[in-house]
Automatic annotation (TrEMBL):
Entries under InterPro entries matching the protein: AcCoA_biotinCC (IPR001249), Biotin_Carboxyl_Carrier/Decarb (IPR050709), Biotin_lipoyl (IPR000089), Single_hybrid_motif (IPR011053)
Residue ranges occupied by any Lipoyl-binding domain in the UniProt entry: 67-149
Top-rank taxon, per record: Bacteria
Keywords in alphabetical order: Biotin, Fatty acid biosynthesis, Fatty acid metabolism, Lipid biosynthesis, Lipid metabolism
Organism: Novosphingobium subterraneum
Name of the featured protein: Biotin carboxyl carrier protein of acetyl-CoA carboxylase
GO BP annotations listed: fatty acid biosynthetic process
Length: 149
């Protein structure tokens, strides 16, 4: 279904998933000029609700921005779409800053998706060269968050 470009918050998406879970429908597919959101229930091993984002213009392929990040071997990319946060809570110091040494298990930030806070680990050792994404920014899966040297 095509609608005018309406902004959705994570609370809106959680409410949509809850409504879908209680309904007789199996899935919902919502498209706007900016994104496409597909929510389906009973498709994972636990029979819960899953969601899938696709940014407008990305088609079945990964978006151009995400593709550039994948090619950069120094980029630590978002494992899922959502809102990227530099710190565990407002006012707290950031997980990492440029110049910090990190290891594979170091948390470099959090991606919030559907009210779930998902830690993002560096995945390898290195030194933080730059934080690419501003705090509180919506990111796509595969988008570069941090660059290492």
């Amino acid at each position: 279904m095509m609608t005018d470009d309406i902004p959705l918050t994570h609370e809106d998406i959680a409410e949509i998933a809850e409504i879908l879970e209680k309904s007789g429908y199996r899935e919902l597919d919502l498209s706007t000029r900016r994104f496409r959101l597909r929510v389906a229930k009973g498709v994972d091993a636990q029979g819960g609700v899953t969601q899938e984002w696709q940014w407008a213009g990305s088609g079945p392929e990964v978006s151009t921005e995400a593709s550039a990040a994948v090619v950069d071997p120094n980029a630590i990319c978002s494992p899922l779409p959502g809102t990227f946060y530099h710190a565990p809570q407002p006012g707290a110091p950031p997980f990492v800053q440029p110049g910090d040494e990190v290891g594979p298990e170091t948390v470099i930030g959090i991606v919030e998706t559907m009210k779930l806070m998902n830690p993002v680990h560096a995945g390898r050792s290195g030194t933080i060269a730059a934080i690419v994404v501003a705090n509180g920014t919506l990111v796509a899966k595969g988008e570069a968050l941090v660059r290492l040297t």
